[in-house]
Amino acid sequence: MYSRAERFSFAAKVLLYAILLVWTFYALLPLYWIFTTAFKTQAEAGAYPPTLIPRHFTVATFSRLFSHYSFGFRPYLNSIILSVGATLVAVTLSSLAGYGFSRFRFPGRRFLLLFLLLMNLLPTLIMIVPLYRLFILYHIYNTYIGLILIYGVTSAPFCTWLMFGYFESIPFELEEAAVIEGCTWGKSLWHIVLPLAAPGLGAVAIFAYLHAWNDFTNAVVLTSSESVRPYTVTLYRLLTERGFAQWDLLSAAAFIAVVPILIAFILFQRYFITGLTQGALKG
């Protein structure tokens, strides 16, 4: 016979797993719907009641998307360029800032850390007008460098907190020993600290890449030509330019955008989860 405490513990676990299953279903259902609709015919994609499994599996939607609607791969190429550039900026800034906050004590240190945390609470819309004026003033409107800078800088505060927590988990004695052996602080950071902080760097890189990959607000305001615009803006135009939604085309475009991110997350999820948890716990 189980005691009351054991029965309560078993019931709590059952309830917890039930909630997790419902949440998993809620999170995966949109992805399943996009993936299946991308391989449906145009008539089946707009039919009612909807079908959960394609009756007539087809890949003709993808050829229609790229041949007849001038969607092309350019928006995805733009998103890759912007995301990779923003990731490099965010990783560089957050690594240096997180290391400085972790290893050096200076007046206002805690205030600056709190300020970085508060920066993440600011909505993007309140910064759009000042950003637009700055971009025009410095001639970086509708350029790769402008979007890369804004994506990297806006990701840096949260990434700095992650790296700060991760650097705190690395013993300072390792650097002291390296300096005693004749290594400079810069070399100790490059050859000792950063390799040990690889999971944290991986988490920061994935976060910054996803932040830039999924952005829409900054891209639609700070660009004016297809040569720079990422796929999110082009996807929005595909939805609005004809006055009605063609769900098969939208699903095919979203499928191409989502699959690389899912593959990257599956491959690097171990570094992402380890970096987040260790940074949060140690910070």
Order of helices and strands: HHHHHHHHHHHHH
- Low-pLDDT regions: 279-283
Question: Hey, roughly how much beta strand do the residues contain?
Answer: under 5%
Q: What's the structural domain tally?
A: 2
CATH architecture of the largest domain: Orthogonal Bundle
Give me the count of strands: 0
Q: What is the level 1 CATH name of the largest domain?
A: Mainly Alpha
Explain this structure:
This protein is mainly alpha-helical and 283 residues long. 76% of the residues lie in helices and 0% in strands. It has helices spanning 4-37, 42-45, 60-67, 74-103, 109-119, 125-137, 144-168, 172-180, 185-196, 198-213, 217-222, 231-240, 247-282.
Short description:
This protein has 283 residues and is mostly helical. The protein is built from 13 helices and no strands.
Features of this protein?
13 helices, disordered C terminus, about 0% strand, about 280 residues, MetI-like fold
